[in-house]
């Protein structure tokens, strides 16, 4: 008995032909394709073959009854989604509950009203259709999710509430050299994914038990073959469990290492260049230093002669007086030694290490070094110290080099004019920075030089190497600081050098 082509299929099952006839009449013309069966076996057979959307199923039938038919259909994946509405004269609530328990969606009491049957069939067909659409949409979404998960570079692992792997994408499997079947249902510890690194295990436990996110920039992931791969690892809680994401960082690490090596090479070159510049400054200052050392040495010679005379003429020299003169010899010798010592430690190869420095103490040393030049050129150095400056971290010799370069340039520029015979070096600082300013009232910057200031080999001086300012700027920048020029509104130049206090 089949009625109407197209539309949803509805199977009518009743052992009573009259009842079947009535059902048929009820649903005829409502747009469904109707199938019929007169006993349970036939109903199962037709259902398996035709897969109707809905079955109107009589309960009391000879052979297997409606409940058994429903059970059989629900236990078969091919027919489990068919909606079953029971029709029965058994209206006790136990039968209804049984009907729903074996998988029925509705229960209509006999004798039934045609309108009611039609209305319920329509509702359940609609629900059935929506459920199918939803299931298809779910499958499409799952496929889409999977294709997205498989397309990303990261390994993505879903964990259930117990921390067992519930899903894993292709990239994750490729990296650990395992198959999906090997890992599903196992915990991270069972899989020994992170070599049972205790801190990672602790992070993962907190993620699973307390929903605490985890983020590790660098961990070692173990492969099935026993290799170890550097990955970054994050873990986030999600509905019904958590998700781990790892990213292979081996290439990134390699490029970081290459970058680090390049940085070290540049730093070495910079230090080398700075050393050459100091040697050159040392050379330029040699004549002045020789003069500076010569004065105390001459005094030493004179005092020594005085001692000799005291011994020769008295025969019995006054030891107190001799001792006084010897003290003077020692003072002068120390003066000469200090000049040489200062220059030696300035020219020596730097250790490259940063240390805690007092800006004022460091500048005092530089002023002492520059005094030779200032005397030669007849220029005074005015040193203005700011109070209560915080110490900063820097390579002492290199920062001295910057200050000395600026001071010597200022002295030379001032010597070229006859207005103000003073240069000023002043320290400054606040909670975030310390620094110093070198100010002169000299000739000011040559316009050709100003446009290329801080570029190497730019000099307006005869025999000038033109590397002082470029080396100074690279030193300051390597310390995270800043070196700036501005014209002195009163004529001359101002150089401002500043260092952040956070630099370590
Ligand atoms: P050098 O002293 O060997 O020329 P520098 O790099 O120290 O090399 O200086 C580059 C140039 O910048 C100098 O030749 C000079 O023209 C200019 N300069 C630097 N400091 C001053 C200053 N205080 N006043 C005027 N010109 C300056």
State the end-to-end CA separation. Answer: 92 Å
CATH architecture of the largest domain: 2-Layer Sandwich
Name of the CATH homologous superfamily of the largest domain = Histidine kinase-like ATPase, C-terminal domain
User: Using only CA atoms, what is the Rg?
Assistant: 48 Å
Number of helices: 15
Could you tell me the number of beta strands? 17
What does this entry look like structurally?
The chain contains 15 helices and 17 strands. By secondary structure, it is an alpha/beta fold. The protein has four domains: 2-143, 3-Layer(aba) Sandwich (Rossmann fold), CATH 3.40.50; 153-248, PAS domain (Beta-Lactamase, 2-Layer Sandwich), CATH 3.30.450; 285-349; 351-504, Histidine kinase-like ATPase, C-terminal domain (Heat Shock Protein 90, 2-Layer Sandwich), CATH 3.30.565.10. A five-stranded parallel sheet has the order 2-1-3-4-5, with helices on both faces. It has a five-stranded antiparallel sheet with strand order 7-6-10-9-8. The chain has a five-stranded mixed sheet with strand order 12-14-15-17-16. Strand 4 (83-88), helix 4 and strand 5 form a beta-alpha-beta unit. Helix 2 runs parallel beside helix 3 (66-74), helix 10 packs across helix 15 and helix 13 (396-415) packs antiparallel against helix 15. The radius of gyration is 48 Å and the shape is rod-shaped. The structure holds adenosine-5'-diphosphate. Adenosine-5'-diphosphate is lined by residues 405, 409-410, 413, 440, 442-446, 449, 458-461, 464-469, 493.
